[in-house]
Every structure is written in C-alpha cells, then in structure tokens.
C-alpha cells in the first residue's frame, strides 16, 4: 500500500533514504564513552573472545559483501585472521573448524536456508556462532550462541540496501569490541574509530543529496547493456555490491573487479563507450593505493571507457580522467564503503525505473530464500 511507503515511490526509495537512521539505530546502546561495548557479546566472557584464533564469516548475496568489507576492519583492529565464505560453499567442502574458531553468520532475514544449514554445521563441528540479523526472533538467531541485531527496521524491497549498511555497522562494532577485549587497539585509537562510526549517519545524509544527479546519469544510461565496477581494498566488495544491485534491479550484465586484477584479465573487456564505475580510495589513506587506482582509471580511459568515479570530496587527481565524478564526504578509509555504496544503490534503482521495471520486486528473486 502507498501508505506503507510513507509517500515514497517505492519501498526501495524509502529504504535508501532511511540509511542514516539504519546506521544510527544499530549504533545505539553499543558505545560507552569512547569505546564499543556490545552487550550481546558480553554473554561470551572476555576470555572466550580473547582466545579466538580464527573467524569465519558466512553469508549469501549482499550480506556476504558486508562480510567481505568487515574482513578488512576486523583483521586490522583485532589482529585475528578472518575468512569470508558463501554459506552454500562452506558446508560442502569439509571446512576445518576447531573450538577456537568463531563463526559469524550474516543474514537480513535470518531465514536464508543456505546460511541456516551452515550455522548448524558449524555448531555441530564445535565452533561458536554469532549471528548478525535484522529480524527479531528469526530462525538463524535461535540456532546461534549470540545475536547482534541490526536495527535497520523492516526491509521490504527485495534488493537489500539499508540492511547492508547496518550489517557493516554491526560488524564494525563487533570488530571494535573484540579489539578492546584483546587489547589490540589503544583507547585513543578506539576513540578515533568510534568518532568515525558516529559520524557516518550524517555523512550518508550528505551523499543522499547527490540523488538527483545520479538519477539523471542513470536515465541517460537507460539503454546500457553492460556496466563494470572497479574497487580496491574495502572498495572491492563495494564494486561487487554495485554490480549485484545492477543485476538484481536492472537485469543488465554487471561485474565487479578488484582494481589490481584489471591487468590480469578484465582490461580485455574495455572497449570504447564501456561504462566503468570506479570506487576511488581516499588520497589520505594508504599511500600507495590512491595513485594505483588513478592509474587504473587512466588505463581504461585510454581504451575508451566511460569512467564514473566515486571519489572523496576534494580529490582533484581523478577529475581530468573521469567523465563523471560523484563526491563522498571525507571519512577514514575503512568507513568509505558505508558512503561509496549509496550512489551505486541509487544508480541501480534509477536505471531500473528508467527501464520501467519493478524496483521493489525484481523478476525471479525472493526477499528470503528458504530452500537450499
Ligand atoms: C536473497 C535476496 C538478497 C539477499 C540474500 C541474502 O537472495 O534476494 O537480496 O542479499 O538473499 O539474504 P539474507 O536475508 O540472508 O541477508
């Protein structure tokens, strides 16, 4: 019903707009002073968390890209090896699980059968399981040792948006909680990350102000048949998520690549007019990444690609080589995914609208896949 959409043209438009609240609500009650304390994790006891030797994240679809993003942050902050696996691949390859393995499942619905079966498998093998879930009382949380709920509110559109940013937020809270317990971040470093986290909602609101220009770009590109996405480091999962959104919503061929992999194959795909979104890392981040991605942009531009750069405000280096630039506010590198994904969601939604498709209920997809 139109009323449920709160005046928005679609649930997805509403849910995209709700992302500042999705992040703010997920943070609420989990920051104490300048440190992260997630009450749901205290059930484990600090000795248990301190004794973890390995983390395996399991999820499907968009939730898996949230996991891939968080891998960078959790390893950096808590110094524990993290791997991320698709739930349906994990269970069938006899993974090595020991009792010092922590498994984190991520599921918006909490009902995805592939992830549920992987959770059961992991627990039977002796792992502890924490679930990140957006649906109170769902099946996966009931099968887990602990649950950290995302508080994005009900997500109705099939393609996930606000749940994704809430999942990354919850995983970052987990990473900072773990780092505090393990003593791998100083109080001052922890405070800096907390400051970054609490600044995210307002920054997402700023990115949402670019909606009209991204919509215009999508409408210009309505007959595009293929779009590529490049990203590096935490921008890599965002490139994959941008491609997934476009497949789901606009039914066009889209692929995300790690920018460093370009020269190992994907550059052969570049021909004149090929649209390529590039998630550009901050020039203030790791010294070597920004110039490398700028040179990737030059390489594809020289072969005729049409480059749409998602770049930090004030990043002048990309301007000469990009056909379009969408600016995002300044944030520490690990927090850029929460901003850079927004224009990609809007682009996919608007391309779907431009093609006259059903943005809330794309063909062949279900919001929650309850069969294996
Ligand atoms: C389905 C949906 C995707 C979603 C995936 C995982 O395939 O169409 O949008 O990302 O399931 O869903 P979950 O509820 O486990 O996060």
From TrEMBL:
The chain holds residues 245 to 616 of 616 of the full protein. This is Glutamine--fructose-6-phosphate aminotransferase [isomerizing]. The keyword Ribonucleoprotein does not apply. The active site is at 367 (for fru-6p isomerization activity). The keyword Repeat applies. Catalyzes the first step in hexosamine metabolism, converting fructose-6P into glucosamine-6P using glutamine as a nitrogen source. It comes from Microterricola viridarii. Residues 44-184, 217-362 form the SIS domain. Its EC number is 2.6.1.16. One of its GO terms (cellular component) is cytosol. One of its GO terms (molecular function) is carbohydrate derivative binding. It comes from the Bacteria. Homodimer. Keywords: Aminotransferase, Cytoplasm, Glutamine amidotransferase, Repeat, Transferase. It catalyses: D-fructose 6-phosphate + L-glutamine = D-glucosamine 6-phosphate + L-glutamate. GO terms for biological process: carbohydrate metabolic process; fructose 6-phosphate metabolic process; protein N-linked glycosylation; UDP-N-acetylglucosamine metabolic process. It is found in: Cytoplasm.
């Amino acid at each position: 019903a139109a009323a449920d959409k709160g005046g928005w043209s679609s649930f997805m438009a509403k849910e995209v707009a709700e992302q500042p609240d999705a992040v703010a609500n997920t943070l609420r009650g989990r920051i104490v002073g300048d440190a992260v304390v997630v009450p749901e994790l205290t059930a484990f006891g600090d000795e248990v968390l301190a004794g973890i030797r390995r983390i395996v994240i399991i999820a499907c679809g968009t939730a898996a890209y949230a996991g891939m993003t968080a891998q960078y942050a959790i390893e950096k902050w808590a110094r524990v090896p993290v791997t991320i696996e698709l739930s349906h691949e994990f269970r069938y390859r006899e993974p090595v699980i020991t009792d010092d393995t922590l498994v984190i499942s991520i599921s918006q619905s909490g009902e995805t059968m592939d992830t549920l079966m992987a959770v059961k498998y992991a627990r039977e093998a002796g792992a502890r399981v924490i679930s990140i879930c957006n649906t109170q009382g769902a099946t996966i949380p009931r099968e887990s040792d602990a649950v950290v709920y995302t508080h994005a509110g009900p997500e109705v559109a099939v393609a996930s948006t606000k749940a994704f940013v809430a999942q990354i937020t919850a995983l970052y809270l987990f990473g900072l909680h773990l780092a505090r317990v393990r003593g791998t971040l100083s109080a001052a470093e922890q405070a800096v990350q907390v400051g970054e986290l609490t600044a995210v909602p307002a920054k997402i609101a700023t990115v949402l102000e670019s909606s009209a220009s991204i919509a215009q770009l999508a409408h210009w590109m309505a007959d595009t048949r293929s779009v590529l996405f490049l990203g590096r480091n935490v921008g890599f999962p965002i490139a994959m998520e941008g491609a997934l959104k476009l497949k789901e919503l606009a039914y066009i061929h889209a692929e995300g690549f790690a920018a460093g992999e370009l020269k190992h194959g994907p550059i052969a795909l570049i021909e004149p007019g090929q649209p390529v979104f590039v998630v550009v890392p901050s020039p203030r981040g790791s010294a070597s990444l920004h110039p490398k991605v700028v040179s990737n942009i030059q390489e594809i531009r020289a072969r005729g690609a049409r480059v749409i750069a998602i770049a930090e405000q004030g990043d002048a280096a990309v301007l000469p080589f990009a056909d379009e630039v969408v600016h995002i506010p300044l944030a520490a590198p690990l927090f850029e995914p929460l901003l850079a994904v927004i224009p990609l969601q809007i682009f996919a939604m608007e391309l779907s609208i431009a093609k006259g498709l059903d943005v809330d209920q794309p063909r062949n997809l279900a919001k929650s896949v309850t069969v294996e």
